[in-house]
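As a warm-up, study this chain.
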Amino acid sequence: MPAREEIIAFIKEQTGKVGRREIARAFGIKGGDRIFLKHLLKELEEEGLIDRKRKRLTGKDMLPPVVLADIVSRDEDGELIAVPADWDAADDGAAPRILVTLSRRPRPGQPAPGINDRALLRVQRNDEDEDGPAYSGRVIKVLPRQKAQILGIFRPLPGGGGRLIPVDKKMLGKELAIAPGDEGGAGDGDLVAVHVAPQKRYGLDMAKVRERLGSMKSEKAVSQVALHVHNIPHVFPDQVIAEAEAARHVGLAGREDWRDLPIITIDPADAKDHDDAVHARPDDDPKNEGGFVLTVAIADVAAYVRPGSALDREALERGNSVYFPDRVVPMLPERISNDLCSLRPLEDRPAIAVRMVIGADGLKKRHSFHRVMMRSAARLSYQQAQAAIDGRPDGVTGPILEPVLKPLWDCYRCLARARDERQPLALDLPERKIILNAEGMVDQVLVPERLDAHRLIEECMILANVAAAEALEKAKIPFIYRAHDEPSLTKMHALGEVLASVALKMPKQGALRPTLFNRILKAVEGLEHQTFINEVVLRTQSQAEYTSQNYGHFGLNLRRYAHFTSPIRRYADLIVHRALISAHDLGKDGLHPETTHDQLAEISARISAAERRAMAAERETIDRLIAYHLADKVGATFEGQISGVTKSGLFVKLDHTGADGFVPASTIGDDYFRYEEYGHALVGDRTGETYRLGDRVSVKLVEAAPVQGALRFELLSEGRKGAAPLPHGRRGRPGGGKPGGRKGAGTKVRIGSTARRKGGKGRT
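Now compare it with the structure written out below.
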């Protein structure tokens, strides 16, 4: 048998798939020794020396083969050093450093990389070197330079000059001075980018206005901050607009004529683009009694956005549309997104459709893809469609209630049975919607009701996405998957410790599946710890991403999954459309025949980063709007729950607005509060008083900083009394004893087994 060190070294050296079979073959391990190898690999996992990611073994904290990275510095030899662009230090610790090397064959015209550049790198693990970077990365492509800048709001001073209020939360309470003559033409309330001068020994840091970005007095000022902070492209170049305006409606040539099919769109009431339509009818095949024929038609964006065009390059740069409460920053110009590709009612529109035969058990029997010309019979909102089914049809839904809507709902009930059998992750979290007034400020915050109409469209889209992935795998065409990894071993251990702290037991045996988490959520339903455990289960999950490699979708409990249903607002879907066109010989505008997995890996890295960028911008904009809304309520008291715990304090989410604010640990009581990481709690050293994630609290608003989107609270509630802190094992981590071996408040519950369900359908 090889030594442990030899196995770890072998795993780290591999760039392709590596598992127990590959290790056994490499070291000539046969027969009963394979059982010993299995136990040895499990030990290495539990000790954190290797990880199991995406159905393959990797060295601890290893990066994928292609990484989107930011070049941040040079080492003592002058070599460039980069770090992964989307590394989450809170979850994964310090980001690994990458030594940047130039490509052996640079692309023509490719600029040399420099500090503050963002680049796609092909990385490989370096030999163990305590001082050097863990990885080397060869430059695949240098992306447009990101300007290093500080953004803020300019406030003038009498006599000239002024002050800059930074928009970054990390600079809360810190202002920069701007000398007379350095204002750069900025006026009161303008958003500006500044260059910071060398720091003086005393007084404020000095800055010089480099660029005036716009007035913060406009209606769309708040989202404008997020656009500039995150460098989100929001103005289409002239060439892109010209291409969009020159586009003309495509004709029927090369398409099936489906204009007589009464297919409909169901979208939010304020939607401007409609890229998916649905239709269902009972299957008349006597061999499929009780089954349905479900059709999902998606706007044919590929007919207008050709590979390599200016429209295509800009769509890749944006990656996706970005949605703010006050505006939408679209991936494609309105001529494409809101006109030519929008499935407007009673207008001819090109589409790529998938027709699926559904059995009485809700499972898909077969599917086929078609390039069609369709005509939507009606445009409905979710509320409008639901009202018709509930017995309140209107002038639009009345005529289509019996022939169109009721068969759709019957089909949905059938699909719901299959979904319940598959048991995807059952985290159904409410989403708040902000309604703005005429001045662009918050008028009210709503939690829209979750309707069956929402679930119907969701199930139809999921099934269409699965069909797309299956069709492309069968055709052996490379494409981009939407993948969701299973939780890491570290996070699962942490979850086990949290469950043990509230007297819950989690089984260790069996494959890791969403059903395990569903049993946990079911076990705490109605109990004191329900909110707490729901939050912890959510934080245990990995983040979904785009990838050219398939490792399944854990949350949906699906073997394969791709985004196909929203090509107007997601570039990944456009790639899948092109791949389907090529796979089914539906035209000459499909994926280029020489497209490689490496090229798709590059695209996946870029659009995954763009997705995270959009999420951060949307979240920060909402924070700023809420802070503006609450700025005149300083001193008021609110009810909420603890939404985050750090060693420096607590984050509290308010009930009505969903606003998050901070309570510094130094302001809590008269005790010293110690941070219990694996218990998600602050625990008083002397009193044992405990504040834990999910606890209900009352707070007073003591400060609102709208520019940064920050709120500071004072805690009014007392913590849990006499709560015993989690015991510590080695390295300061809890777990000195076995999970479940400690006693805690509440009723002890045994969560069900994770034994394999018969049939294994939908297994990741």
